[in-house]
Amino acid sequence: MFAADEASRALGIELLATGPGQATARMRITEQMVNGHGIAHGGYVFLLADTTFACACNSHGPVTVAAGAEINFIGPGRLGDVLVAQAQERTSYGRNGIYDVTVRREDGEVLAEFRGRSRTIGR
């Protein structure tokens, strides 16, 4: 799935690891990702978390999509920062799942917490 994800790869997102119900990815904040306040635009941070969530929830095999997601921004990313997102399945029930993604700067500071709800649509 990630190999065909043109949007994520065009932003330089790298998939570092996957396993059952989990994934880790990273992205460097570029000039195009910085907003008028000089910090990473939240949409890009969300996109990194969402991509990592997608890789985790699709790790079980069937085609799975987001049914919904929310993010809490805790701290700012800045130009040149490398962000690392780690996704972990919290629970699955029927065709649904709940996943948490933590986005950190490489120094370990937490920048955002994301929760995604998945829905399996294929077998």
Overall number of strands: 6
- Spans where pLDDT lies below 50 across 5 or more residues: none
The arrangement of helices and strands along the chain is: HEEHEEEE
Based on secondary structure, the structural category is alpha+beta
Strands in their spatial order, largest beta sheet: 1-2-4-5-6-3
Largest sheet: 6 strands, antiparallel
Give the strand content.
over 45%
Task: Please tell me about this protein's structure.
The protein is α+β, with helices and mostly antiparallel strands and 123 residues long. The chain has a single domain (2-120), classed as Thiol Ester Dehydrase, Chain A. The protein is built from 2 helices and 6 strands, in the order αββαββββ. It has helices at residues 6-10, 42-57; strands at residues 14-19, 22-28, 64-73, 82-93, 96-105, 110-120. A 6-stranded antiparallel β-sheet has the order 1-2-4-5-6-3, with helices on one face. A hairpin with a 2-residue loop joins β4 (82-93) and β5 (96-105). The longest helix is centred in the middle third of the chain and has 16 residues, at 42-57. The chain is globular, with a radius of gyration of 14 Å. The mean pLDDT is 95. Keywords: Hydrolase. This is Thioesterase domain-containing protein. InterPro entries: Acyl-CoA_thioesterase_PaaI, HotDog_dom_sf, PaaD, PAAI_dom, Thioestr_dom. Residues 37-111 form the Thioesterase domain.
